[in-house]
Amino acid sequence: MHVLHVASEVYPYSRSGGLGDVLGALPAEQARLGAEVTVLSPWYAALAGTPQEVWRGDMPGVGPARVGELRAGGVRFVFLGLPAFDRPGLYHPDDVERFCTFGRAARPVLEALDLRPDVLHGHDWQAGLVVAHAHLAGWRTAFTIHNLQYQGRWNLPEARAWTGLPEWAFSSEGIEFHGDLNLMKAGLTFADAVTTVSPTYAQEITTPEYGEGLDGLLVRLTLEGRLSGILNGLDQDRWNPATDPDIVPFRDPAGKAPNGERLRAEFGLDAAPILGVVSRLADQKGMDLLLMALPELVREWNVVLLGGGDPLLTAALTGWDHHPRVAFVSGMNEPLAHRIYAGADAFAMPSRFEPCGLSQMIALRYGTLPIVRATGGLVDTVPGDVGFLFGDATPQALTAACAEACRVLEDRADWEARMTRGMELDFGWESPARHYLELYGGLSAGRPAAPR
After folding, report:
1. Which residues form the Starch synthase catalytic domain (predicted)?
2. Same domain, 262 and 222
């Protein structure tokens, strides 16, 4: 089977978060299982790699284009270079237009390269238009929602000409959404199968609370048997406490202590337990809840927080940096993230919603017990006899869960038994990769090209 993944980023060549991590791991695992796997992504000016140019030409309605290739881990990486992506960084305010250009150019370029996969698998809204054009050409398609909150919307009268889609597509049964073009909806509407990155999130997004206005369509997809949840995996070679070069390596709870000592020394912390946080600073991640809970948390915990994002949250957390039990580092720093995962006693994720989440899987692998809100992938990955789950998205509920963790921590045998169970959990990519291959095998190319 030849699988073509399409995404806006892929680790280690381009990455801003979890999407890039998934595209760095899932294709390689599918290749290991015997599939022929290609990944298509933009050729950014700041791409961390030097593709070999294999094609150059002019695309009608798009302009000059070029294609470069790299091969790694049994995967063929194809990078599509367009003028819209010849600038620093990955994402910009005009991304809807940029990824419409990418979406229009993708299939003709693939055909010019004689690349016709058995299944085209698009990821998140940036690939929605690629999925639409592939489906119209009769290709079998799958589409994965990594975060439904981000949908690629733009005023439809202006954006209509960007897409290259037939006129009938611009309806409420197509890609129109409250007067806007919606590229997430394009992927949902045209894909033969739609997945989310955890089973619980697949259920949650069919409700008004989590559906971001698309819950009606998602209910229909569920009834048609086209929506399911496949839990993300974790790159267990990259996140391995026994071989991690950024920490004091360890294989069991008894070997974890030196990392806690190093983290205390690094930030001048006292003997209280350490609560770690590595997160985007965003309302989705519940960082405002953590901020409001801090006055209570520091009574029992040292809090070490690494993250960047919302400038108001950044400023508010910076104001806590003088506190002897709070260490806040703004931005992202991967070696420090590894030290926090390894050195903290517990790890907080008070997310309002969480499609899957990788941080809690990493924390479990490093013997750091997660304290998480019971939502999305957090429900699917944190067992109740290992971590601590709470229901309400409030600072009070977070504080109560942290207090419970502190009480359990007093029983060292119980705590270390939880650590052992967490470190033994298998979050590898083999099972998700097999699930996706089974999904592809069941797809039919017979669905009508036009939504009815």
Report:
1. 2-218
2. no
* Residue numbering of the annotated binding site for ADP-alpha-D-glucose: 15
Residue showing tokens 């309002």: 352
Residue 450 confidence (pLDDT): 45
H-helix or E-strand spanning residue 342: helix 334-343
Q: Are residues 83 and 107 in the same domain?
A: yes
| SS3 assignment, position 266 | helix
Our CA dihedral for 43, 45, 49, 53, rounded to 10 degrees, sits at 50
Please tell me whether residues 167 and 265 are part of one structural domain.
no
pLDDT digits (tens, 9 = 90+) for 221-278: 999 999 999 999 998 888 999 999 999 999 999 999 999 999 999 999 999 999 999 9
Binding-site annotation: residue ranges? 15
Binned at pLDDT 50, 70 and 90, residue 452 comes out as very low
Domain co-membership, 52 together with 132: yes
Judge if 120 and 216 occupy the same domain.
yes
Asked if residue 240 is part of any domain, the answer here is no
Cβ neighbours of residue 442 under 8 Å, at least 6 residues apart?
193
194 assigned to some structural domain: yes
